[in-house]
Structure formats: structure tokens, C-alpha cells
Amino acid sequence: MSTFDKESHEAMSIIKKTYKDQVVDYVYQLLLSGDLSPGDQLKESLLAEQMGISRAPIREAMKELIMNGLVDYRPQVGNFIPVLSPKQIIDSYTTRGVLEGFAVMETCRQFSGEDFEKLDNLVDEMARFAHMSNHKMVVQVGGEFHDLLISKSNNGQLLEYTDRLSLKLHILFYKHWGRLYSPEEIGARHNKIVESIKSQDLDRIEKTVREHYIETGTKIATL
After folding, report:
1. Overall average pLDDT of the 197-220 stretch
2. Which fold would CATH assign to domain 86-221?
């Protein structure tokens, strides 16, 4: 795909997004950039003014952000970026690890040689971006890696709950990964998951994925 075609395709993808989706993305980017921090209030009127849209899709987006744990609603007060306790951070990571570990264990025999090649390439990309201190791309490629891990599952409830947790964990990891792991450790930790799947050892797979998340959640909670 040429640069022009790629840019056109990306532009079309943006246009096809609903206003609600654009609001969710906008708030997510503000959180990643640090323009929004835990404890900050999210004012619907200000978001509507900044984005040049009505407050209806803002309210719709707030419902989704609240459901995903990125926003707290306080009755009679408003919407706020939550301040997570150490226990809430560990609980979030542990839950994601349990869900993903089960999904990968259950579907490990569906992974093809092409899938493993993609996973290996994503691990290499993560390590490369980590060496470049490109936090955003480390998180983005890491998200692609973990999305591929659960892509074989047809458990709708599991996929829904893992998706709800994803954005929250991405933000936490984005802010802290440079203090958690070296670029070499980023690659090694994800390679360990790939090797566990290749082994087809169900207990090893579940334990490796679960501990992958618990380790990170525990480290973040104790910073």
C-alpha cells in the first residue's frame, strides 16, 4: 500500500468512527499524554467545546469510559479520572491474567506457524521500540500481541471483559514501563509466553500468562 493509499485508508477509518468512539479515543489520548491525570474532573461541556460536537455523544462516551474503569462517576458531582489503589491495580492485572491465561490455554492448539511468526515479529518490534524509548509504540504493539493471543477464543463474555480491562492496563503500563522493565526484559517476558504456547503444555501456558500480568501489576502497585 502506498503512503497516499495508507493515509487515505486511515482517514476513511477515522471518518467512519462515531462521535462517541472519537470521544473515547480523545480521552484515552489525553490520559496517555498526561494531559489528564488521576483525580482530574472531566467536564462534558469542556470536552464538547474542545471537540466541536454536542454533549449527547459526550454523555454516551462517558458511559463507556465508566464501564471500562477509565472514569468514575460521582453522583451530584461529576465525572473524574479514578485514583486507583494498589489493590485495585493488582486486581485489574490479576483478572486480565486469569482471563487471558484461560483463553490461550483453551485455544493453544489453534495457533498456526503463521501465528507464531506474527507473535515473534511483534516481540521483536516491542523490544525495538523499547530501545528507542517509544512508549506509545511499545504499548500499541504490546496490545496487538495480546489481542492475537486471545483472538482464537469464541467466548464472548471473556472477550468483552478482557477488552474492558485493556485500555486501563495500557494507560498504567504506558506511564510506568520504563521503570519496570529494560528493553531486553520486555522482549524476554513476551518470548516466554510464545514459548509456552509452542510447548502445548496447558498448565505452563496458563501459569505463564497469568504470572506475566501479576508481576507487572504488583510492580506498578508498589512504585
Report:
1. 98
2. Four Helix Bundle (Hemerythrin (Met), subunit A) (1.20.120)
